[in-house]
Amino acid sequence: MTRNTSPKWKRLLAPRRWRLLWLAGKALKLLVPMWRDCLLGRYRPLPWKALILSLVIVGYLLCPFDLIPDVIPLWGLVDDVVICGWLLSRLYDAMQPWREWHALHPK
User: Fold this and answer.
1) What separation, in Å, do the N-terminal and C-terminal C-alpha atoms of the chain show?
2) Handedness of CA 63, 65, 68, 74 (dihedral sign)
3) Which of 31, 37, 39, 57 has the fewest beta carbons closer than 10 A?
4) 53-96 pLDDT, tens per residue?
């Protein structure tokens, strides 16, 4: 029998880290269809929280001021990935009403 020698905190955080990446990917995949439905008037009410979060994500990526400057090798990009991944997971949660509507009203 093999024994897991990795620290306990790593074993506890690993599933959560992959879940955040999965949620971020799902949010990116669903963002364009959600805004298309909103702009064409197919889905009401307008999801303001999702709109604000998507604007914050784009603004953070385009802003020259970061938590950690991008000129610092690797760490400058890591903070962008972590912060945007976290924001995208919050965006996925904010899209819940639209996802439920979309499941009932496929194209």
Assistant:
1) 52
2) positive
3) 39
4) 988 888 887 876 777 777 777 887 788 888 888 888 888 889 99
Crossing angle (nearest 10°) for helices 48-62 and 8-39: 110
| pTM for the full predicted model | 0.69
- Quote the tokens at residue 36: 């298309």
Q: What is the DSSP letter of 67?
A: S
